[in-house]
Amino acid sequence: MSPTTLPEFTVAIDLVLRRDWNARAPRGAYTQLDSTKGVKVHYTGGRVNPGIVSDHDGCVSLVRSIQAHHMDGNGWIDLGYSFVACPHQKVFEGRGLHHLPAANGPGLNAGHYAVLGLVGNAGLVQPPDGVLHAILDAVQYVRDQGHAGREVKGHRDGYATDCPGDPLYAWVRRGAPRPGGTAPPRPGPVAPPFPGRLLKYPPVMRGEDVRTWQRQMRTRGWDLDVDGAYGPGSRDVCRRFQRQQGIEDDGIVGPVTWRLAWEAPARGQG
Ligand SMILES: [Zn+2]
Ligand SMILES: [Zn+2]
Fold first, then answer.
1. 92 CA distance to ligand 2 centroid (A)?
2. Could you please report the per-residue DSSP string of 47-75?
3. What is the per-residue pLDDT across 57-85, written as a single tens digit (0 to 9) for each?
4. Which segments in the chain show pLDDT lower than 70?
5. For the whole model, what pTM was predicted?
6. 5 Cα to the center of ligand 2, angstroms
7. How far is the CA of 45 from the centre of ligand 2 (A)?
């Protein structure tokens, strides 16, 4: 493993190891899993107490109870999931790396690691950002360390189930973006401060403020020279832009016309 030929993995994952959540020992040997196509995302399918959002001990209890249900109810050798993501961006080690999960359904376990997000079909239904981050931390972890491919799918992909619930599944279908990334609506562009003088013609006005406005209008798609000189061409573009924006077409760049040059939604020039 030479650092010159292999990237050094900097895995930002807050793992809760099995001993840390007092996991019961598996009842039998895991089936080895060399590689997978990726990850399938799951939810609990039941009610999740919203109180866990402010109580990580509640996450631990919930994971322990799911393990008990899988071992004592389903008769599985262990918790069925590879990893569990909680609202505190922690990732519980379930069956872990290179072990066949049980939660994806018969015939589907060798294809994907199984990652549970701690949300349900009642109570805590909308996945908190911490859960989404933790799922993605687990996804990155199995890619880096577990020979997992790029797929991120839902349990319902290829199996008749509601899992992982509509909110988590919609997120999966959007490409499982990091919260706070490009997904949330971004605030619109903000105009630079109005230069403090009206840009108008005649006579020709010159200055950096004129050039700044011309450059922005060019960026918006208007055909004008970016020469720092406000003459008839600039005035004409200004008037047409003002008409497009439904404001008085006096051909003078005042504070409102200036601000709209940056903040008005882009559209055709009519
Ligand atoms: Zn599932
Ligand atoms: Zn937690």
1. 9
2. EE-GGGGG-HHHHHHHHHHHHHIIIIIS-
3. 999 999 999 999 999 999 999 999 999 99
4. 1-11, 181-188, 267-270
5. 0.65
6. 37
7. 18
